[in-house]
């Protein structure tokens, strides 16, 4: 039996911070697209699509790393409800990191538009073109984006609570190596 680790693996930390920047950028790009009807909207959309696919690929890599490396335990004195909230919020974050790009891809497919990664790489449609499906997926993508944003804010608040109030090793385990 191996001894528990006090920090996340370097690759897990690198993926966490890279994806944090990418996901936050995506949320702001998405908000900009929704708020804009100008030509800027097309530029943002052309940035949003490949970034979403990159997030989808990276979250799969991240899940493989997560299940193949040891993670630090939560503090033993953490109240049970907080430990449960931490576990459930992580499940929700991973689910949203998987669902959002897949729903976006399906939404674009349902609109009958190609999912282009640059000027020459075209991804296959994952659903048939259908106006009602597009409308449903667009609404789902928007509401899940709100949920994602709120979940990220709660995750950030919990990390700061651990770092500034509890002053335990939870935040440090993702900030620094051994």
TrEMBL record:
GO molecular function: electron transfer activity; heme binding; metal ion binding
Matches recorded under SUPFAM superfamilies: Transmembrane di-heme cytochromes (SSF81342)
Keywords: Cell membrane, Electron transport, Heme, Iron, Membrane, Metal-binding, Transmembrane, Transmembrane helix, Transport
Membrane topology summary: Multi-pass membrane protein
GO cellular component terms, A-Z: plasma membrane
Biological-process GO terms, alphabetical: respiratory electron transport chain
Primary localization class, coarse: membrane
Every Cytochrome b561 bacterial/Ni-hydrogenase domain range: 8-177
Residue stretches spanning the membrane: 14-38, 50-68, 88-108, 143-165
InterPro entries, sorted: Cyt_b561_bac/Ni-Hgenase, Cytochrome_b561_oxidase, Di-haem_cyt_TM
Subcellular location: Cell membrane
Necessary cofactors: heme b
Family as reported in the entry's similarity comment: Belongs to the cytochrome b561 family.
Protein name as it appears in the record: Cytochrome b561
Source organism: Pseudomonas abietaniphila
């Amino acid at each position: 039996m191996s001894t528990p680790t006090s920090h996340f693996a370097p690759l897990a930390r690198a993926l966490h911070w890279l994806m944090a920047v990418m996901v936050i950028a995506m949320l702001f790009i998405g908000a900009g697209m929704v708020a804009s009807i100008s030509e800027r909207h097309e530029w943002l959309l052309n940035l949003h699509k490949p970034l979403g696919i990159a997030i989808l690929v990276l979250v799969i890599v991240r899940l493989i790393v997560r299940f193949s490396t040891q993670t630090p335990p939560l503090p033993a004195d953490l109240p049970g409800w907080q430990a449960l909230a931490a576990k459930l919020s992580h499940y929700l974050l991973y689910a949203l990191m998987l669902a959002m790009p897949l729903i976006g891809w399906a939404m674009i497919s349902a609109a009958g538009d190609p999912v282009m990664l640059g000027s020459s790489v075209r991804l296959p449609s994952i659903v048939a073109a259908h106006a009602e499906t597009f409308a449903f997926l667009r609404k789902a993508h928007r509401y899940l984006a709100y949920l994602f944003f709120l979940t990220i804010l709660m995750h950030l608040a919990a990390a700061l609570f651990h770092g500034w109030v509890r002053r335990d090793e939870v935040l440090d385990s993702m900030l620094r190596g051994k």
